[in-house]
Amino acid sequence: MVVATKLLARRKFIDTGKQFNIIAASWIQFMIHDWIDHLEGTDQIELKAPREVKSQCPLKSFKFYKTKEVPTGFYEIKTGHKNIRTPWWDGSAIYGSNTEWLNKVRTFKDGKLKISEDGLLLHDENGVAISGDVRNSWIGVSTLQALFIKEHNAVCDALKREYSDLDDDELYRHSRLVTAAVIAKIHTIDWTVELLKTDTLLGGMRANWYGLLGKKFKDTFGHVGGAILGGLVGLKKPNNHGVPYSLTEEFTSVYRMHSLLPDTLALRDVSAEPGVNKSPPLIEQIPMEKLIGLEGEVNISKIGFLAQMVSMGHQACGALELWNYPIWFRDIVPHNVDGTERSEHIDLAALEVYRDRERNVARYNDFRRSLLLIPISKWEDLTDDIEAIQELSEVYHNDIEELDLLVGLMAEKKIPGFAISETAFIIFLVMATRRLEADRFFTSYFNEETYTKKGLEWVNTTESLKDVLDRHYPDMTKKWMNSQSAFSVWDSPSAVHNPIPLYLRVPK
Fold it and tell me: How far is the C-alpha of 499 from the C-alpha of 294, rounded, in Å?
């Protein structure tokens, strides 16, 4: 709680300029709801704020459940933690990670999922949204869930028109594969290249999907060569590198990105005419506390899909830096797996620091050593901010080896164009590759037999989130989006055309 108060808690909102918007912040939580959630034990513990920071903590103490430890059966690392979400890139945020949730979201007619007439999620008798994963969510995530339920249903319609003999279950299974692949593709070649905004990463992430031979060659001749020439998607067989597929605790740790969220949502007037660079006029600032959990699901029905998406598109998200962790997260109601609220409030900033320690994730310097990166030998290696250096030294009693990973990731000097640290980037790079190359549905089964010819065409012709928005809300981006990507702030100036082919550009 000292670390959360003195090094993480937001003093003044710091944004990312035009690079990254609230849709991008919502997108990564949408992905986390697809990938990771730890099984909890029955032991409840309490954290209490020490005297030195007690007056600055919204909660003087809070209780939560420990992460449940289970035996691994491995000779070296003897215990680990179970994931209750499917770690594959299978769209489980909208489909669910078990049979109960899968059945809850299906209509069992023409392969489709449940969605309201206004394009938002339906809700059960407790006000909980009906979608694959609804724990600890907010309306930015539920808006994306609703969008991709519409995408799934549109794929169902397209496949039914093309293949009238497919039954409900076959339509569902093929459409799920197509939709999950569209999500994975958007994350790989759209979201990530806005997060790491350099030509090098643009080239690298497109090569992950298409290979160095590029999209036109792959569309024409299919997958040729290995991963380098043809890309990871469509390889002849999955590659597990001799290790069973999983998402690691290090992966969980570097995705602690709650600083991306602002203090308020700047709600825009989509009934007005666009202004400069297609920007809509501001109506009001809605506190984020009103947009999370069950209250958020009530308010999204008042806001509507169009206004919510356009508003998020035109608002910059927070920067991943020290002193930028939202204060409202320090007194928040956590959820049970079924989306119902718990009675105990938590301080999420303090809990995240605790979780890394509890799960034996290495401290910052050891983490870098394990990645063969140079550890810091003094605070000045980490940051040039004099105040940050003084505060870090005081909190950690001038012991660099005690620096928590989350704090180090926020304090670390960023590579130009990167919204994240180099340390986090290494994990991103390794796991972005692994999520694709280890999955048979992106390698040996990425074919017409598995996806259908129409389904594979759907994936291959979808390049970005903008493509999905255009498919379901064709007037939205035309009227309100000036930026090249749906993940950068929508009133950004249009990108200047670069005549030099991507792979021939010299990195700056």
Answer: 49
Q: Which amino acid is at 358?
A: E
Reading the block at residue 274, the tokens are: 């666009």
CB 317 within 8 A of CB 260: yes
- Please name the residues in contact with 158: beta carbons below 8 A apart, sequence gap of 6 or more: 454, 458
Phi, psi for residue 292 in degrees, rounded to 5: -110, 155
Are 248 and 35 contacting, i.e. CB atoms less than 8 angstroms apart? Answer: no
123 is catalytic: no
* Strand partners of residue 58: none
Q: How many CB atoms lie within 10 A of CB 177?
A: 23
Rounded alpha-carbon distances, angstroms, from residue 450 to 132, 442, 471:
23, 11, 24
Can you spell out the DSSP letters for 171-222? HHHHHHHHHHHHHHHHIIIIIHHHHB-SHHHHHHHHHHHH-TTHHHHHHHH-
Please, what's the b/e burial string for 230-266 (b: 16 or more CB within 10 A of its CB; e: otherwise)?
Answer: bbbbbbeebbeeeeeeebbbbbbbbbbbbbbbbebbb
The burial class, CB within 10 Å (0-12 / 13-18 / 19+), for 119 is middle
- For the chain, 508 residues long, the average pLDDT of each consecutive 10-residue run is 98 96 98 97 96 97 97 89 95 96 97 97 96 97 98 98 98 98 97 90 89 89 89 94 91 97 98 95 98 97 98 98 98 96 97 97 98 97 97 98 98 94 94 95 97 98 97 96 96 80 71
**Tally of residues, the chain:** 508
Confirm if 31 and 133 have CB atoms less than 8 A apart: no
Amino acid at 104: K
Say if residues 257 and 263 touch (Cβ distance below 8 Å): no
CB 350 within 8 A of CB 47: yes
Per the DSSP assignment, residues forming a β-bridge with 25 are none
HEC letters along 410-453: HHCCCCCCECCCHHHHHHHHHHHHHHHHCCHHHCCCCCHHHHCH
Query: Left (φ > 0), alpha (ψ -120 to 50) or beta: where does 17 sit?
Result: left
- What is the pTM (predicted TM-score) of this model? 0.96
Residue with token string 């320690």: 357
The sign of the dihedral angle between the CA atoms of 459, 461, 464, 466 is: negative
> What's the burial of 114, exposed, middle or buried (CB within 10 Å: 0-12/13-18/19+)?
middle
